[in-house]
Design a protein that fits this description.
heterodimer; A: about 325 residues; alpha/beta; six-stranded antiparallel beta sheet; five-stranded parallel beta sheet; 7 helices; 18 strands; B: about 350 residues; alpha+beta; seven-stranded antiparallel beta sheet; three-stranded antiparallel beta sheet; about 35% helix; globular; binds FE2/S2 (inorganic) cluster
């Protein structure tokens, strides 16, 4: 199991207006963990961690590369990345996959809006390695076209591959009808970009009769690791109260207070870490309890679940 | 492959009463197998559960330890690989790779070679770009245990003597099943399985995870399989998990696949008629250590099944194992014993273990 990665910034480049490409490597230049096309790296910025798509090749790479659009009124993560310089160190979790290619697809149709091109780059690297059929539609505003040369070079190496560059969302939506209607059977569609653009592409595909199982969307700012709201637990056994901050599991908070709860999977699957609840309402995020048990609300899986309200009471 | 039940690694005979005091008679080979045996029971009662835990941590036992590496190499390494090769020659249907699993097969190859090299640096080495030409897809594998040196180009089948999944199955004792994930389900679309316990990979290939587990009693009701399915679908790379499973097998017989039932099926009746010493020598606790790995490039799930066999007469040399195994067998419900194919002799196995105590 790989814990946090300690990485060093080895290069910083401007990929387009307001878009910075940061190259990261291990301090000793060794191999980094491989990643699935479409994966993102969760970088620990100041404040909450942010997820950024990896734009490089995924097979035991010597570096990771991310391209980040500066969002002046965002949560601050993008500004923090833009302030990085060569030699700075960064902590990140190993890459996570949530936008993987489908091995049985006859073709991958990739549709990107603006900075939404980032997850498509690792798809293109893999397509080149394995000779997969791809088509890319890439819409961006003038000056904001990051990685245009990269995608053109990657796609040029593919048999029958093609890239279409479009000047804005209207042009993209204008092309969509024809492109969606002329795909070979078994094509899977991947879309990433601003929310409104994703919704428009998905709506057009559904209207064109595409089954949901062949549509894949990556929305910005959504990550599997929802840190949850802070709450506190009252331990009626010892009469003490333990705080569970955002991003810390109930299990870890109890550990910290010297209350040992058995555990195995830490993923809400095995059922080991079940503890009784005597007051408050659990926010169930596990896969273990049955619907009935959830409704009863008298037990909680401490490794993943939290509290709906500010406090939970447990007889420990 | 012998057709009569036999224990090729057991050179001594013993009666149940002498089993516990027979430690001095164990060969170094047997000692090594006991020291690495993944004893599966954590309580006196066994029921199905989604008993997964993070992989790669060593579990101490009264006899030694197991679990430090994802891919373990033990004293049976060469013998088991020779047996796998012989089975594949006889029955090529134990190996299948559907065309869309090509990338996953290469991903498995590189992942497992890296695990081997990391766990056994003194005997196995993996070198990237061995010629130093900057070709990052060029690799060299050196395996001193097998006397193998193989150079290959990642993704290029013509650089290996066989299909990549078949080739890597010749370097690890584990059976391998690859699951493709699509349409919110997992599909057993590739594998090399030569040591199956009462199932058939040739029959299951291409089936969904839920179909493959359809016949297991109780599991559906308990939601164990659907939970495992959900868990696997969310499994991320670089976070391997493991679980154990177990049954009893008559004779040191790794290949008890459905295809060979006519060979081993009659043993279940035969075992009723043997004397106690033979019973303790022939009946083995069979433990599978299963690893669950999200492959880091192809996103397929690699399911590794490693089989360990220990005859009751050697199991009984560890008193804690003897008592706990007896308790588990006594308590096991009929339907589970029936499904495991041990209903005819599990009572005798429990009684044998009870009687094998040092105090008798
Ligand atoms: S530790 Fe497995 S469900 Fe919590």
């Amino acid at each position: 199991m790989i814990a946090t990665l300690k990485l060093v910034v080895t290069a910083v480049e401007d990929a387009a207006r307001d878009i910075r490409t940061v190259t990261l490597a291990t301090p000793d230049g060794g191999e980094l963990p491989s990643f699935v096309p479409g994966s993102h790296l969760v970088v620990e910025c100041e404040g909450p961690a942010n997820a950024y798509s990896l734009v490089s090749d995924g097979v035991l790479p010597e570096h990771y590369r991310i391209s980040v659009l500066r969002v002046p009124d965002g949560a601050g993560g993008s500004r923090w990345i833009h302030d990085l310089g060569v030699g700075d160190t960064v902590s990140a979790l190993p890459p996570r996959s949530a936008f993987a290619p489908v091995a049985t697809a006859t073709k991958h149709l990739l549709i990107a809006g603006g900075i939404g091109v980032t997850p498509m780059l690792s798809h293109l690297h893999a397509a080149r390695r394995w000779g997969r059929r791809v088509q890319l539609l890439y819409a961006f505003r003038d000056g904001y076209g990051a990685h245009v040369a990269d995608v053109e070079e990657l796609v040029a190496a593919l048999p029958g591959g093609c890239v279409e560059l479009l000047s804005d969302r209207a042009a993209l939506l204008g092309r969509l009808g024809e492109v969606l209607g002329t795909q070979p059977l078994g094509t899977h569609l991947y879309v990433c970009g601003p929310g409104a653009m994703i919704d428009a592409v998905l709506a057009a595909a559904q209207a064109g009769g595409w089954p949901a199982s062949r549509l894949h969307a990556e929305r910005f700012g959504v990550d599997a690791l929802d840190p949850g709201e802070p709450f506190s637990v009252t331990l009626t056994g010892s009469g003490s109260t333990v705080d569970v901050p955002s991003g810390v599991s109930l299990l870890d908070a109890l550990d910290g207070a010297g209350v040992a709860v058995p555990r195995l999977c830490r993923q809400g699957v095995c059922g080991e870490c079940r503890i009784p609840v005597t007051a408050g309402t659990p926010l169930h995020r596990d896969l273990f309890l049955t619907d009935e048990e959830r409704r009863a609300g008298d037990a909680v899986m401490a490794c993943v679940s939290r509290s709906l309200g500010p406090t939970l009471e447990v007889p420990l | 492959m012998t057709t009569a039940p036999a224990t090729p690694t057991s050179t001594r005979t013993s009666t149940p009463t002498s089993a516990a005091s027979a430690e001095a008679a164990l060969t170094p080979h047997q000692d090594a197998l006991i020291a690495g045996f993944p004893f599966p029971f954590v309580a006196d009662r066994y029921r199905y559960s989604t008993n997964v835990e993070p992989a790669g941590t060593s579990v101490p036992t009264p006899a030694g330890q197991w679990g430090a590496a994802v891919v373990e190499v033990d004293v049976e390494y060469r013998a088991e690989l020779a047996e796998r090769a012989a089975i594949l020659r006889r029955d090529p249907g134990r190996h299948a790779v559907l065309p869309h699993m090509h990338a996953a097969a290469w991903d498995t190859l590189l992942t497992l070679l890296r695990e081997l090299a990391a766990a056994h640096p003194d005997r196995m080495r993996l070198t990237r770009d061995p010629a130093g030409t900057g070709a990052r897809d060029g690799w060299r594998w050196e395996n001193d245990l097998l006397g193998v040196v193989q150079e290959f180009t990642y993704g290029d089948d013509t650089t290996l003597p066989t299909e990549p999944l078949a080739w890597i199955a010749g370097q690890v004792q584990e059976d391998i099943v690859l699951l493709d994930q699509r349409n919110d389900s997992l599909w057993g679309d590739a594998g090399v399985v030569t040591f199956a316990a009462d199932w058939s990979f040739g029959f299951d290939v291409g089936m969904s995870f839920l179909e493959i587990h359809g016949p297991v009693p109780r599991l559906r009701e308990m939601g164990v399989i659907t939970r495992a399915h959900e868990f696997l679908k969310r499994l991320q790379p670089h976070q391997p998990y493991r679980r154990t499973n177990w049954t009893l097998t008559i004779g040191r017989r790794l290949d008890v696949s459905t295809e060979l039932y006519p060979e081993w099926g009659p043993d279940r009746a035969m075992i009723a008629d043997v004397d106690d010493a033979t019973f303790g020598r022939l009946v083995h606790l069979r433990v599978e250590v299963q690893h669950l790995i999200r492959l880091p490039e192809s996103a397929a799930i690699c399911f590794l099944i490693r089989t360990y066999l220990l005859p009751l007469e050697q199991l009984a040399t560890v008193d804690a194992w003897r008592l706990r195994t007896a308790a588990v067998l006594e308590d096991l419900p009929e339907d589970m014993a029936d499904y495991k194919g041990i209903i005819k002799y599990r009572d005798r196995a429990a009684a044998w273990l009870r009687a094998a105590g040092p105090g008798r």
